Amino acid sequence: MGYKVAVVGATGNVGREMLDILAERAFPADEVVALASSRSLGQEVSFGDKILKVKALDTYDFSDTDICLMSAGGDASKEWSPRIGQQGCVVIDNSSAFRYDADVPLIVPEVNADAVVGFTKRNIIANPNCSTAQLVVALKPLHEAATIKRVVVSTYQSVSGAGKDAMDELFSQTRAVFTAGEVVTKKFTKRIAFNVIPHIDVFMEDGYTKEEWKMVAETKKMLDPKIKLTATAVRVPVFIGHAEAVNVEFERPITPEQATEILRSAPGVLVIDKRENGGYMTPHEAAGEDATYISRIREDATVENGLNFWCVSDNLRKGAALNAVQIAEVLVNRKLLNKAKQAA
Ligand code: 11C
To answer: Where in the numbering of this chain does the Semialdehyde dehydrogenase NAD-binding domain appear (predicted)?
Structure first.
């Protein structure tokens, strides 16, 4: 028997990707329903070789739906995810609304799949922020091998993380620069075309941004609360694919060769590290791919047991839609969905 799956936010960047990935991975669904706010009612989205007409979220009855992949923003999640969960449908929520709640598991299957069982309290599972997802996929096997003490990470995040309007803004600003037209800035705080902006999400009181705070809180929740992490999150004029320069200090010695071998056999990771021109991965090449790519693995000789590496992934896939579908696969493979109906 297959499952009934709803995708909320089906017309957005991540929602469309969720539909593509469900089809690509032949998720065992008998029925897939595309939902969105009434603004998108009647729009069409593709699901494999089918076209789905978008239905309204606010009139949809979730009681016979097994899984809801939710990517309609934090406000919609806060309003809808608890209600959907109460109807016995497990919500895999891509927003930050529930990530830090103790009774909601935050899951990257390669890192902490076993924690998924905690979903029965509210029938909600949180999907991490894109910049954290790819980072913890890389850190987990290294932490197991040599115990991470501290991480310093700088991100180079593509505009698709900020939604479709942000992608349009990069496109139209780039065109305006080339045609000597007016460069209009709406979505970002400064011009993004031919620029970089050290600001993602809102500012916090301590001077960090919420994006940077999320990387700290989510790494601690999923991997180990003892890990110290500091981040600088930067937006770059790239459409799809987040990159990260990562510096790690370990408790025990680990050589670049050992780290390379460990990462080569780690789930979800592909090492591309030839130490020659072009022998590394870039966001452009990672777009549309599932892996978290690791390149430039080298010793940081300025600290004891230090390594540097470069980490790249498609933020809409591993950073959002793919991870959500992988969580759904964990629920199916571990036969956990009947627990959702009992919990409701
Ligand atoms: C960005 N990382 O690139 C953000 C997008 O908490 O799920 C995802 C925000 C989140 O702008």
So the answer is: 4-119
User: Which two structure tokens, joined as six digits, stand for 162?
Assistant: 């900020």
**40 assigned to a ligand binding site:** yes
pLDDT digits (tens, 9 = 90+) for 10-43: 999 999 999 999 999 999 999 999 999 988 988 9
Q: Is the ipTM of this complex over 0.90?
A: yes
Torsion (CA) 108, 227, 311, 207 in degrees, nearest 10:
100
Ligand-binding annotation for 264, yes or no, is no
| Ligand 1 site, residue 93, Cβ cutoff 6 A | no
CB distance 162 to ligand 1 below 6 Å: yes
Rounded to the nearest angstrom, the distance between the alpha carbon of 260 and the centre of ligand 1 is 28
Mean pLDDT, residues 40-57: 95
DSSP state at residue 295: E
CATH 3.40.50.720 residue ranges for the chain? 3-127+321-334
Catalytic residue among 68, 89, 143, 242: 242
